[in-house]
Amino acid sequence: MYTSYFALSDLPFSIAPDPDYLFMSDRHREALSHLTYGLGTTGGFVLLTGEVGTGKTTISRRLMEQLPENTQTAFILNPTLSSQELLATICDQLKVRYRKTGATLKTLTDKIQEKLLKNHQANIDTLLIIDEAQHLQAEVLEQLRLLTNFETNTKKLLQVILIGQPELQQLLQRRDLRQLAQRITARYHLMPLNKHEVAQYIQHRLSVADCYRVIFDQRAVVMIHQLSQGIPRLINLLCDRSLWIAYGESKSIVDKKTVINASSEALGEEYQPTGFWHKTPIKIAAAVMVLATMLGLGVWYGQQQGQDLNPVLVVKQQQDFNKITTPKVATTAEQAAVTDPMYLVVENTTLKLALEKAKIAKINLIPKEKKALAMDEFQTQQPLILGYKSEEYRRQHNGNNIFAKRIKLKAVDGVSNDLLKTFQQAIDETPSESTENEQITINYNNIKPLSDMPVWLQKELPNLKFEMHMYASDGQGWVRVNGKDIYEGGKIAKNLSLEKILPQQVILNFQGEEFSMSALSSW
After folding, report:
1. In the predicted model, is pLDDT for residue 322 greater than 80?
2. What is the rounded distance in angstroms from the CA atom of residue 288 to the CA atom of residue 300?
3. What percent of the chain shows pLDDT beyond 90?
4. Does residue 176 sit in the same domain as residue 214?
5. CATH number for the domain including 67?
6. 457 lies in some domain
7. Same domain for 9 and 36?
8. Residue 13 or 363, more confident
9. Is the pLDDT of residue 356 over 70?
10. What is the Cα–Cα distance from 167 to 164, expressed in whole angstroms?
11. What is the number of H-type helices and E-type strands within the chain?
12. Final residue in a domain of this structure, among 190, 217, 245
């Protein structure tokens, strides 16, 4: 076996839930905190969802290890039961004695109620954990809700943790289960590991097996993350098969090629890596580059054509426009006044320039002071060819010239000199800069997460399931929530709107209260 070849004390990548190999990433710790918080609220239901193999069962086992000693737990791994079978299984887990034959729903419910009251009197908390809860039937979930009706003035006698795949969230959105959904005091959707966490996960499991050297090189780890999509169970399958192949080929280091070969055996064709040109972002980037090249060639060609097709005629005002003859073309040997890096003025001369539009301008319409300035090089940024304005010209003439000259007030009858002086001082001190393009920067770091918001908001907030998160720095990003695509400023539900899309979270506004939620999370 490869354990002796790589000097390992154990199989480090077994898919069995061995607690010795437990790896708690930041996401797993956050999920555990949500479960602990939910149990501490003395509420009815706590929900944990995630894709297959993300570590939901591992978190539930770690939670059971941290429970106080005065907690009796019933753990159900096979939820494909009828309502009566579920109650019988709960009785078995809680060590409740009942007649195996002829037991009815009422009999089993009464037995469970007696047990819950007895535990409460003995200061014992009762907890029910159901794994793979997405397989529960709607009537079974309703039966669970009825069990949580047993309560005192301060707490529920039975707390339930539902663990399942994302389909469980869809199941709980059914109208006939809305009462159960309203009793969920905490919920968390477990996301896969990122690239950095995958490297930590692999090294952690190797170190538990007494291996502290590098076996998987960096490119192999990147490929493992790409193929497994950060799901721990798939990481285990890939790493285990990669070690077998490396052992068979007498390699001391697992490289990228070994991981790719292992993927076809361990994961099948569904998880085969895609080539460079088959990746959607690469396709988009290539298309953008081709389009940009074509546009650039088009602009260049248009400029070349524009040299011959778009002459600018500057003529005397006294001339009859109907009798204009084509003037000569300016050459470098002739004198031309340069008024701006982009503007030339030569009277009665066709300029070979690539311009946006060809227009006929009356030379006498150009102010005299502009004609004088045109004799000196680069002394003005005002274009002397009418009908064409550069960005600099637009910027300088965009509403700011109302303050170009100092406004002076004249006294009229009945106005004192002191009052006139006060008004004149106020006008002089008025700032002239335009606020049209000012940007307001908001610090979203101070916005509280949903878990820190008031209880009333958490109870009234409708169910949310973020299925897709597209961030764009220009504010054109969007998310898919509850099956609908919503852009910034869009309305998700009544009194609930999407304020901002950030790289790792979204900012929501519910009844005037702003709060944040992690990307691709659910509530």
Report:
1. no
2. 18
3. 32
4. no
5. 3.40.50.300
6. yes
7. no
8. 13
9. no
10. 8
11. 17, 16
12. 190
Token digits for 185?
A: 């005091």
Instruction: Categorize the per-residue pLDDT at 338 as very low, low, confident or very high, splitting at 50, 70 and 90.
Output: very low
Are 361 and 316 in contact, with CB atoms under 8 Å apart? no
For the ranges 224-228, 283-287, 438-442, the maximum mean pLDDT occurs at: 224-228
Strand order in the sheet with 496-501: 491-493, 496-501, 505-510, 513-518
Residue 203's alpha-carbon distances to 184, 255, 374, in angstroms, are 37, 15, 73
Least confident span in 110-114, 182-186, 191-195: 182-186
Give the closest residue to 155 by CA, choosing from 123, 189, 133: 123
Each residue of 284-319: b (16+ CB within 10 Å) or e?
A: eeeeeeeeeeeeeeeeeeeeeebeeebbbbbbeeee
Tell me which of 419 and 504 has the higher pLDDT.
Answer: 504
Domain residues for the domain of 98 are 26-190
**Residue 74 is encoded by which pair of tokens?**
């019933």
- State whether 130 and 31 are in the same domain: yes
Instruction: Assess contact for 160 and 6: CB atoms under 8 A.
Output: no
Does 135 lie in the same domain as 70? yes
The answer to the question of residue 430 being in a domain is no
Alpha-carbon dihedral of residues 307, 308, 310, 313, nearest 10 degrees?
A: 100
Mark which of 190, 223, 255 sits at the end of a domain: 190
In a domain, 215, yes or no: yes
Residue at 318: amino acid letter = Q
Highest mean pLDDT among 34-43, 308-317, 356-365, 394-403: 34-43
The set of residues, in sequence order, having a beta carbon less than 8 Å from that of 44 and lying 6+ positions away, is 145, 148, 156, 158, 159, 160, 183, 184, 185
Specify if 219 maps to a domain. yes
List pLDDT tens digits, range 197-220: 999 999 999 999 999 889 999 999
Per-residue confidence (pLDDT) for residue 509, from 0 to 100: 92
pTM of the model: 0.53
Q: How many domains are contained in the chain?
A: 4
pLDDT 10s digits, 72-94: 999 998 778 899 999 999 999 99
Please indicate whether residue 366 or residue 64 has the higher confidence score (pLDDT): 64
What DSSP letter does each residue of 363-417 carry, written as one string? Answer: GGGS-HHHHHHTTSTT---S--STT---HHHHHHTSS-GGGSS-------TT--H
Q: What stretches of 310-373 show up as alpha helix (H) in DSSP?
A: 368-373
Q: What is the gyration radius of the CA atoms in the chain, in angstroms?
A: 37
Same domain, 108 and 228: no
CA distance 238 to 232: 10
Dihedral class, residue 387 (left if φ above 0, else alpha if ψ from -120 to 50, else beta):
left
Tell me, what's the pLDDT at 282? 58
Instruction: Kindly tell me if the per-residue pLDDT of 426 is higher than 80.
Output: no
Question: Which token pair is 75?
Answer: 């753990």
- Are 163 and 215 members of one domain? no
Same domain, 33 and 112: yes
Do both 315 and 256 map to the same domain? no
**Distance between start and end Cα atoms, the chain:** 46
